Amino acid sequence: MTTKKKHWYDYLWIWSIVYFALGFFNILFAWLGMIDFLLPLAIALLGGNKWFCNNLCGRGQLISLLGGKLGCSLGKPTPKWMVSKWFRYGFLVFFLAMFGNMVFQTYLVFAGAASLKEAIKLFWTVGVPWGWTYTAGTVPDWVAQFSFGFYSLMLTSLLLGLIVMVFFKPRTWCAFCPMGTMTQGICKLKNRAHR
Questions:
Q1: What digits encode the pLDDT tens for the residues 3-61?
Q2: Three-state DSSP class for 124?
Q3: CA distance 70 to 50
Q4: What is the rounded distance in angstroms from the CA atom of residue 51 to the CA atom of residue 188?
Q5: 150 to each of 8, 44, 78, 191, how far by Cα in Å?
């Protein structure tokens, strides 16, 4: 039996752990998560494929490691409704609405219409004080507000991924991941245009 040759990108699960650890100590590191937002879109737009999802997604790798190799998953089949088009696109719309709300909250702080909230929101509803991760005045308040909001989004999606990993196949999250749905849509449009 031959073993698959390891590439540098097979270890990007470490990036996921480092990202969340850095945000635990300094919320401004949350901006690094924009790499995980922009790079998949750029690869899909330029390459017309989901190479990021298949090779570079540290979150997917981490979930595979925990659920697969470390056996933290019950491994039950992913429910059909969870992989259905209506659920995937519905979740994408919901996710984009939450992202838009986060950007709007950042704008309100930028415009001086709202004050900085040093908290993260888990599952878009549960506020958790997170003030120890930021020293007031280090950067403009709107920069910090974006950090708190973006870290909330990233942490919530990780927790959702871990929850579905426990009950179903390890990479069940990937079936309805908003970035995966967006890149798949981009690839379909791009490939249709090249026919």
A1: 678 888 889 999 999 999 999 999 999 999 999 999 999 999 998 888 899 899 999 99
A2: coil
A3: 26
A4: 14
A5: 27, 22, 28, 31
pLDDT at 2: 59
HSE, CB side, 13 Å, CA atoms: give it for residue 45.
7
Report which of 194, 149, 190, 117 is spatially closest to residue 37, judged by C-alpha positions: 149
pTM of the model: 0.90
Q: Which two tokens stand for residue 150?
A: 């973006």
Residue 117 in contact with residue 152, Cβ under 8 Å? no
Count the neighbouring beta carbons within 10 Å of the beta carbon of residue 141.
20
The pair of three-digit structure tokens given for residue 33, joined into one six-digit string: 């998560």
Pair of tokens at residue 40 = 């998949």
Q: Which residues contact 162 (CB under 8 A, 6 or more apart)?
A: 63, 66
Phi-psi region of 49 (alpha: psi -120 to 50; beta: other; left: phi over 0): beta
User: Can you tell me the distance from the alpha carbon of 147 to that of 138, in angstroms, rounded to the nearest whole number?
Assistant: 13
144, 134 in Cβ contact below 8 A?
yes
